[in-house]
Amino acid sequence: MSDITSSEDGFTRTAGRQLALFFLMAIGGVAALMWVLSIAASLTSSGTTTSQAVDAETGTVTIAFTTEPPQLDSTLATDMQSGMVLGHVMEGLLTYDANNEIAPGVAERWEIGENDATFWLREDARWSDGETVTAHDFVFAWRTALDPKRASEYAFILYPIKNAEAVNTGKLPLDALGAQAVDDRTLTVQFERPLAYFDKLVAFTTYLPVRQDFFENTDGKYGADADKLLYNGPFMMTSWVHGASLRMDKNPHYWNRDKVKLNTINVGYITPDPNARLNLFKDNNIALSGLTAENLPSALENRWQIHRFVDGSVFFIEFNHREDRVTRNLNLRKAMLLAQDSAELVYKVTKIPGYLPGASLFPTWLMGVDKPLREEYPANLPRMDLELARRHLDLAKRELGVDQIPPLTFLTGDNPISNIQSEYFQAVFKKNLGLDVKIDKQIFKQRLAKMTSGDFDLVLAGWGPDYNDPLTFGDLFASWNLNNRGRYANPELDRQVRIAQSSLDPKTRMDAFGQIQQILIDDAVIIPNYERGSVYVTHPHVKGVLRRVIGADVDYTRAWIDTGA
Predict the structure, then answer these.
(1) Where in the chain is the domain with CATH 3.90.76.10?
(2) pTM assigned to the model
(3) Which of 35, 183, 191, 320 could pair covalently with 325 via S-S, beta carbons 3.0-4.6 A apart?
(4) What is residue 482's predicted lDDT score, i.e. its pLDDT?
């Protein structure tokens, strides 16, 4: 979902720098990747039956996080790490099955029309204290997320519900929301406008239930600790040592508990260091680790199982468009867009196989009417052109009334890959435009806080899909979207977003996305960097781990331990 740590997160890695890098240089990134993975696939894995990473007797798998979840209040959460945890300990009306298709969750059946929807909740859906999950819990959660006093950055994702936007902006009271608990097991929802994708929305984090009595008894600390959450998902969090570890145990009250094979997911380590995580994997302390260019040869030598995954996320430099920032100037943004090359970033700097150079906010996997959206609506991102870039820079200086652009603050993550990328851009903008860029490195939680407050000129950002529709990317820079951290505002883009939100005609909607894409390029709203892929290793006895483009990733809810005995 939403904000992501960086390309350096726990499952984003690359091909090797030694043997593999030789082939990358000789025959090209894609061919080299296939060569590396074919070699890896032919190797057999070794491992012990019982270890710290996998304990078959207790049904425990131990893993590592790159960062602890910043926010486990589902009405406020915005990031993928929190989404991963919530995806294991909570369940919405609908969920995703092993084939990434919408499936029943708390709702055992549902009917969705053009203007409304009805969900019938299963009788055996329970909270972790044994109480029944009711339709009232969903209504309360949605009203809470929309409460203006909460300032939820994901309130916008509830706007398809009738009156949701008016409630969120304080124009209507909370009880005016078009969602009603007819009784404990029946929930009705009225739409603000005809809607083509509501089933996908209700599987998202902000649509999760919250029980009012428990929420109010936490005195404003809901989600802050393991005992400050009530769970209705496959697992429940039984321990959370902030910054160090986290433990999720099988929820005995979960309605589908017989399908859950693991007893415990033990997040035994929280570290942003990819080499530290690989060493933990090597020492049988964790069951999964990403690979970097530096450590893929070690994985090959150890004959580990190696997997490839494209996670659907895009990464980019986002500008601050607030009035007090020089990056509000269009010519400055165009100059910086034209002064860099995403292909150079991907192929010569980060060297990550499976990555694609950035060309659009919309990734290549999204479908249009009959074929991929980007095929039907090609992204016309201008190529690197230093002469034109410098002309735009001169125009920017005249418009800003300065002889030299003041130093620009570049907010980034504090991890190896973010460091490589930010230092590359710092050097590129200095060399090609003479700009002074000051890097502000922050841990993930603090970077999110600074993004929210607007404390940056540029920020190294990323966006993962929340649901399987182009709108999950298309409305990111709508003026009302609080995840639009730079506060870009364009009435025409907003109009096109409204069309995409309300139309039921696929061609009309895709035309709107094509217009949104072109506006973002013409206004140089972002500098696209890349689409993300990963290479990673898993313990040979852990089976059924799901990697998801949509939903909680990595997903252990259907995993099991197979010792081969």
Answers:
(1) 80-227
(2) 0.76
(3) 320
(4) 87
